Amino acid sequence: MPTATKTRKPLGDQGPVAEQFETMGQQRDANRLGMWMFLGTELLLFGGLFGAFVTYRVIHAEGFAEAAGHLDLTLGALNTALLLTSGLTMALTEQMSRAARPKATFWLLVATIAIGALFIVIKGHEWYKEYQEQLMPVLGLPFSYPGEQPEQAELFFNFYFVMTGLHALHMLVGLGVLGVIATVAWRWRNPPRIARQVQISGLYWAFVDVIWVIVFSLLYLSRV
Amino acid sequence: MSAQKGYLPDTEEGLRFFPEQASTFAGDLDFLFIGLVAVCAVMTLLVFGLIVAFTYRYHASRQKPREALPSARTSHRIELSVLGAMFVIFMGLFAWSTHLYLDLYRGPEAAMTINVVGKQWMWKVQHPDGVREINTLHVPVGETIELRLTSEDVIHSFYIPDYRIKHDAVPGTYRKLWFEATKPGQYRLFCAEYCGSYHSRMRGKIIALDPADYQRWLDDQGERETPEVRGASLFRSYGCSGCHLGSSNVRAPSLAGVYGRPVPLASGGTVMADEAYLRDSILQPQKHVVAGFSPIMPSYSGQIDEGEILSIIAYLQSLEPEDQALNPSDTTRGSAMPEGTAQGESP
Amino acid sequence: MSTPSLEQRWPRDHYLSGGFRLRDWLLTTDHKRIGWLYFASITFFFFIGGIAALLIRLELITPGGDLLSPDTYNQMFSMHGIIMVWFFLIPSIPNTLGNFLIPMMIGARDLAFPKLNLLSWHVYTIGALFVVLTVLLGAVDTGWTFYTPYSTLFTETAVLAAATGVFVVGFSSILTGINFMVTLHKMRAPGMSWMRLPLFAWATYATSLIMILATPVLSITLLLIAVERLFGIGIFDPALGGDPILFQHLFWFYSHPAVYIMILPGMGVVSELITCFARNSVFGYKSMVISIMAIALFGFLVWGHHMFVAGQSMYAGVMFSLFSFLVALPSAIKTFNWTATLYRGRILLTAPMLYAFSFIGLFTIGGLTGIILAAMAIDVHVHDTYFVVAHFHYIMVGGMVTAYLGGVHFWWPKMTGRMFSELWSKVAALALFIGFNLTFFPQFILGYLGMPRRYHEYPADFQLLNVMSSLGAGALAIGYLLPLVYLTWSLFRGKPAGANPWGATGLEWQTSSPPPKHNFVQIPRVSEPPYAYRNQDQETTG
């Protein structure tokens, strides 16, 4: 991890140690390990879904490839670009919070949240479009598929909505967490704590990015 | 649901340890089981015995030499040799059981294939010559019987304890199971996979008969149509013949002799026309579109039951490619003119 | 060690003296108090699941279905399975004893994330109560395995609520697993190297690893069931080309390793008990550790043995069978080593030791019948029969629950500062062993005779064995109720235990009973390997 290269103690390592720990180093390591493990379990959560999808993608190769062609690649690509950009702003937030710059930290957080929210809006628009095209086999809505293999397409769209829905849920959780940190950063009362929180939530945000990239390549890119 | 006790043969009460051995497989399996139980019993007794012996000898109240424990190296060697011994024993048992399983899995050439469809909460049986039964299966002794299992709703499991065989009936797939009965008599049939409210009443019986008795039983069944005949009439009544037979072959491939042959697909590649393929083509016709045809066939999903599908498959299986005099070289696209129409009536 | 002195004074300031208001419990971050919260929750769920089991056994006394309707019966065994597996067995040892002991065993003041620990308990209890309520109100009849397409398309019961509840409880498992792993990695006292960890800590480590690796896959699988029922999004629907067997693969990918979640902690507890009451260092410490980790890892390679008759390919079957035979090897080594630990020991037949012996015996039978089931040809015959039911009860109840009770008795003086009745505890241990065998041994025979599991009615000639089994269940119930009585009694009337009533090694015994709020007045330094009961000798343990 890119810390402790400077001679001064990094901001995140200052402040009082929680009572169960001996040293700040121990506390920092424990927090970081915990977050990595949590993200590992999240990856496995999605992993089960990806595994099932890939299994079906192999069994019903043509139907799935064709159904993928009915997704809006432009919007998907735009969303990918947006999310990667928000990854950049989040990384910058981390730098700024460690450099103890309240204003920059706050505004970069706001930028990250704004881009994330835009992602959700675009995603929602995409879902609405699919709803209009009757490609949303959810809650017994009519599903009329213009292609050749409607059953498999329905299966594909089932996966599509579960995967993008679960990802969007993680985005919303992330946005909520960033929103809380943004209010805390606005007040700027306990800078070392803010720096630690920004670092940990930055890990989570990067994870959400990574998951999206996998979802995007599985659903949008593996088309005919 | 009324009680179905009548379907279940009575067995004498009292304590037994083994079910009857009534198939060719049962004896081998019991032998393996006894072998495994013997090995396990020896190990269990060894553990119990050592615990009792050590507890007696080294109880805190007894004065015994306790100082010299085996050295680290000795105990390591002991562990390794225990590990090695267990490994050898376990691998031996593994080889034995796997050998037996592979025999069961591959199975010999079957004398007849009987279709079995599970449905909440009954077993529907279709004999090759058209006799149909519910919750009862008559089989001849001494012949290899193959069952083709499927389900109309949830997963069931076809289990005959006296034959030591079992296989799940999974909706949407065909599973095979074979056995050879050795003794005439009545044997129990259970559903072993939990399938809902009346799971425990999804029972029936196998009636194994001497071949002569079996033939007599068949003859007594009176009027019946074979699955081929039934399939042929279904083939017409569902309107399949309108496109797949006769002069309208432009719209759909002829199906004469398609069974068991590779079919070229519109997407490139080929697929083997087996039971699963034919079933899929009826329920999900767009899944594999034959090269040269448009995906215009409607799905029959929800309109046709598993028994009917099996009959149509039997009918398609019975069609010979040679019947197609006009275009014998092309098995999938050939037109089937008058001969093709005739097949439908004389399977 | 010198003989334990019971005259040590009652500590003036300890973790229980901090207050007894509801808030002091429900909002505590002290791992010991949270251990008690879990203790209360799982005891509650255990008895609910136990009532369901008794009703099942009562129904099975007669071949016909006369006590319960078929649907009620199906709901009973589903409730029994769901509650016992997810709300009792999985959290039993790790979340109660583990919570209480892990920080003390490694010389830490608390777990790494005390608030997360409290959150885990709240998540667990709310999720589990939610399921129990739905089961009582709306009922679930899928069995604990939720097999599709029955669970998604056919049953009309409250599968959605049950799957959601189990999904929520899964998060508690994940959070607890992370907490233990981080604690064991980062919070060990000076000198407490990995090879000086008590085996209970190693077992908890392996358990946590499985929880972290497997639970997410179960979560997503249950989530897929929930969305199928809620939104009609069919992932396993055969009509769309979905595969019901894929569900089984995903389910068992979690649930087979979960079986090891339900036995590894028991192995850890028994290693502590045997060494303490044989006054001996454990035979082959290093290979015990390797076995624990090998079981945890091999546990991920054997899930397919639940599908030998579901139609997986022959080669897959052979591989899964091979791994299932191999996973028995580390368990065999552990059993051998426990037995060898007795050699030249100084054996005390206390109640915890009786439980430990029960564990070894029952686990041996359970494990070896597992070998019989791993033999594919035999599995074809006994799959989904009472043979399987007996086998896994020998592991989970004979193994895990016995170890859990042994552990509760062993650490009771540490948790409460008081001793329980020696006589009654031995009676309970014996009732448990006898009742258990009477309940479940006949089921092996029933299974080989061909009685399928989850049967509400059965042919009349199975009745004798079923009656034996039901009688045994009565004795077993006594074995479980007795400790509830005398342990509760000891809370008020038990003799003060002193810091180390058993004369055990291990850091948790070096602090007072009950321990102070942050466990140690001063963080200890560790300078010797675990189980140094023969401190006069020089022999190493590996």
Description of the structure:
The radius of gyration of chain A is 21 Å and the shape is elongated. Chain A has a single domain (25-221), classed as Cytochrome c oxidase, subunit III, four-helix bundle (Four Helix Bundle (Hemerythrin (Met), subunit A), Up-down Bundle), CATH 1.20.120.80. Chain A starts with 23 loop residues before the first helix and ends with a helix. Chain A is mainly α and 224 residues long. Chain A has 6 helices and no strands. Chain B has helices at 24-57, 72-106, 211-220, 227-237, 240-244, 275-283, 306-318, 338-343, and strands at residues 112-119, 122-126, 132-134, 136-140, 144-151, 156-160, 165-169, 175-180, 185-191, 204-209, 262-264, 270-272. In chain B, strands 3-2-1-5-8 form a 5-stranded mixed β-sheet, with helices on one face. In chain B, strands 4-10-9-6-7 form a 5-stranded mixed β-sheet. A two-stranded antiparallel ribbon of chain B has the order 11-12. The radius of gyration of chain B is 28 Å and the shape is elongated. Chain B has 8 helices and 12 strands. Chain B is of the alpha+beta class and 347 residues long. Chain B starts with 23 loop residues before the first helix and ends with a helix. Chain B folds into 3 domains: 24-58 and 71-106, no CATH class; 112-220, Immunoglobulin-like, CATH 2.60.40.420; 227-343, Cytochrome Bc1 Complex, Chain D, domain 2. Chain C is mostly helical and 542 residues long. Chain C has a single domain (22-509), classed as Cytochrome C Oxidase, Chain A. Chain C has helices spanning 22-26, 31-59, 70-105, 114-137, 150-154, 159-186, 199-231, 244-261, 264-278, 285-298, 314-341, 351-374, 376-382, 386-416, 422-449, 463-493. The longest helix of chain C is centred in the N-terminal third of the chain and has 36 residues, at 70-105. Chain C is globular, with a radius of gyration of 23 Å. Chains in contact: A-B, A-C, B-C. The interface between A and B is small, with 8 and 8 residues. Chain C: Residues 25-527 form the Cytochrome oxidase subunit I profile domain.
